[in-house]
Amino acid sequence: MVQVQGETLSDYVIETSDLVKSYGPHVALDSVSLKITPGATGLLGPNGAGKSTMFKSLLGLIGITSGQGKVFDLDIRTQGPAIRQRIGYMPEYECLNPGIDAIHQVAYSGELLGMNPVVSMQRAHEVLEYVGLREQRYREIGTFSTGMRQAAKLATALIHDPDLIIADEPTNGLDTTARDFMLNTLEQTVTIGQSSLLMASHLMDDVERICNRIVMLHKGKLIAQGKIEDLKAIDQEIEIHSWGHSSDLEVELKNRGYNVRRTGRVMRIVKKDENSHNDILGAAAKTGSQIRRMQDHEASLEDLFIVIMEKLGYSIKSSSDLLASGPSARKVDAPLEMKEAGI
Ligand SMILES: Nc1ncnc2c1ncn2[C@@H]1O[C@H](COP(=O)(O)OP(=O)(O)OP(=O)(O)O)[C@@H](O)[C@H]1O
Ligand SMILES: [Mg+2]
Hints:
Elements (H helix, E strand, L loop, with lengths): L13 E10 L2 E7 L2 E2 L3 E5 L6 H8 L7 E6 L2 E2 L4 H7 E4 L11 H11 L4 H14 L15 H13 L5 E5 L7 H16 L4 E5 L3 H7 L2 E6 L2 E7 H7 L2 E7 L2 H10 L4 E4 L2 E5 L5 H12 L2 E7 L4 H11 L2 E2 L3 H5 L6 E2 L4 H5 L3
Parallel strand pairs: 4-9, 4-10, 7-8, 8-9
Antiparallel strand pairs: 1-2, 1-3, 1-5, 5-6, 10-11, 12-14, 12-15, 13-14, 16-17
Helix pairs in contact: 3-4, 3-5, 4-5, 9-10
The structure holds adenosine-5'-triphosphate and magnesium ion (MG).
């Protein structure tokens, strides 16, 4: 078949349909259909959700069980090497040799990707400067701090000027300064360098700071994807501060069909329609509760995560309950439709 360059290529950097990856009987990715556009996307999900498995599948490093996947229109089943030429991968595990200096490690990664040794060495100097390791480039990696090792990992990912960076928990274990530097560098690579970024993180702030889209996985299933601002708009909340009869007001609002989250006198009520503000005032008048403040709540990514997880039947107070410390959150009864969907 003859193709005119650009004409039939998709607008997506990554596209999968019904992608399944099983490890023996364990289904790590369960019929995932992703569409990721250029730019910065955060990949969220509790431990064991399938994030790293997704990355390895996209890179063509592990064989998928069924379904389809394309990165830059290249098939993940058959074109792994060509895909890896265009992706800079920062894995979650230690991938650097502690016994060699940073400059040779980074140059070697370029050579592994097929770069000419002279060009690769020249480029290694540039990327190490870019990630803030100019002074330390002749030091053995074994002497590096965690922040410096993460920066060196980023340098190896950037050596071939990739079109897409896949970063698995890039700020893990970093202190505030190193974390800020890592995020700023990744952000610059997207905004100035015009690369796309797919970043797994358990820190909502990190994702919100540099990504405008998210993909959320849970037990191998895709549970949300899209622009953060669009996803936030699905469940807009009204925040009220009530005084007196707060429990009665909460019950009345629930009777009126509102989803209410209450912490003391502060309640967040999921807006139903344009009449919701009046309806809330009516409920307060009926129960004798005073409303001292009412405002549309400016949702954060943290709020969005909690709302989505509540829909899946998890009772969590913060994302760290699920993301940072493992699946320790208290599971309450999942809604019927989710049980039926096997989520
Ligand atoms: N090589 C393997 N063999 C068998 N099971 C595996 C293998 N790799 C991953 N798994 C399982 O697949 C599931 C998804 O694992 P994966 O590492 O992709 O999750 P993750 O979202 O990256 O988790 P984390 O946040 O802990 O890094 C887990 O249940 C894990 O135990
Ligand atoms: Mg992982």
